Amino acid sequence: MHPKVYKAAKSRDYRSLMTTISENGEDLFHQTTPKGNNILHVAAQGKQVDFIRDILRHQSGSSLLWQVGNDHAVRVFTDLAKSLDQLDACKELLRRPNNNKDTSLHYALRGGHESVVKLLIEEDPQLCDIGNAVAHQRLSDIIEPILHASSSPCFHRGPKGLTALHAAVHYSLSSWEKILEKRPEVIREVDDIGWTPLHYAACFGNVKAVRRLLQHDTSVVYDLDKEGESALHIAAFRGHVNIIKELLTSCPDAYDMINNKERTALHSAVIGGRAKVVKHILRTPNLEDVIDQQDTDGNTALHLAMLHKEYLIIVPTLARDKRVNCFATNKDHKTALDIFASTL
């Protein structure tokens, strides 16, 4: 540690500290002694509460309390605050977000510091109610204490409206079942684009998650995002036949769902170039209405296959199916063959 920084921390001379840092660079904030103590540890040993508060209020110093990766600094500071009747000030600092809207808890979660997380929750359970990037953390073994500590059912909402269940499904964490058990209502929570956890499970082909979510609540199959897309649309576009089977086993009529452009899962499969999904849907009986469904432009799945020339491998599959009306016209009065001819 720079000698002037160490001296300033020992003597609670914040002005001297800032002068030294301004002359030598912000990296001095994060230097440590041979024992691994940073300036916050040094100040805490001398019971310099005001000095500590000034450090933590500085944008480059706000992570010092939790960046060391152990609970010693947190315990020293909280015990000191209690002994000096400064607990409210301590909580204020613990809850203070940095420029990324991270509090001490979020920072500890992202850094994987389990002991710090548990101590922070113990000292201030309301930290769990402050939503941000915590939804992206990957510490499955600390989900449970957070769930118990939080007073808000949606505490885990983070950037772009993501909840902890969204993130846990995304990363295939074992913790997502704990979340679902403790907070079953989050199965219907949507992010900023209207995706539920089922949308994410369908998108990433997580069969186990889809099956478990449907065991909990099959009605989520019918939830649509802001584009009117269901989990079935997403699975079809991504080419996940196994997911489609799971969804349709629980809700056979889900094939009838259309998005904001009046497109079915078959349309989505064609747009995504998913020949296997197209074949799977065509093998499903009694889908005549779905197969020739026209979107807002009047295009059937066959029209779209022609429009997406890179997916022409799908055209024969559709054209050979006797249920497909090859002579259907769109709003431009064109058949699929007309579209093909216009590209020659």
Write up this protein.
InterPro entries: Ankyrin_rpt, Ankyrin_rpt-contain_sf. Pfam families: Ank_2. This is PGG domain-containing protein. Keywords: ANK repeat, Repeat. By secondary structure, this protein is mostly helical. The chain has a domain at 261-343: Serine Threonine Protein Phosphatase 5, Tetratricopeptide repeat, CATH 1.25.40. Helices cover 51% and strands 0% of the residues. The chain has helices spanning 3-10, 14-24, 39-45, 49-57, 64-67, 72-83, 87-95, 104-111, 114-123, 143-149, 164-170, 175-182, 197-203, 207-216, 231-238, 241-250, 265-271, 275-283, 288-291, 301-307, 314-319, 336-342. Helix 1 runs antiparallel to helix 2. The chain is elongated. 41% of the residues are buried.
CATH architecture of one domain: Alpha Horseshoe
CATH topology-level fold name of one domain? Serine Threonine Protein Phosphatase 5, Tetratricopeptide repeat
- Corresponding CATH superfamily of one domain: Ankyrin repeat-containing domain
CA radius of gyration is 28 Å
Q: Outline, from the CA principal axes?
A: elongated
Structural class: mainly alpha
Q: What average pLDDT do the residues reach?
A: 75
The CATH class of one domain is identified as Mainly Alpha
Low-confidence stretches: 132-159
Q: Classify the beta-strand content into a percent band.
A: under 5%
Terminal Cα span: 72 Å
**Total count of helical runs of at least 4 residues:** 22
- Percent helix among the residues? 40-55%
The largest β sheet comes out as: none
Topology, number of strands? 0
H/E element sequence:
HHHHHHHHHHHHHHHHHHHHHH
Pfam family, one: Ank_2
InterPro entries: Ankyrin_rpt (IPR002110), Ankyrin_rpt-contain_sf (IPR036770)
Keywords: ANK repeat, Repeat
Organism: Eucalyptus grandis (Flooded gum)
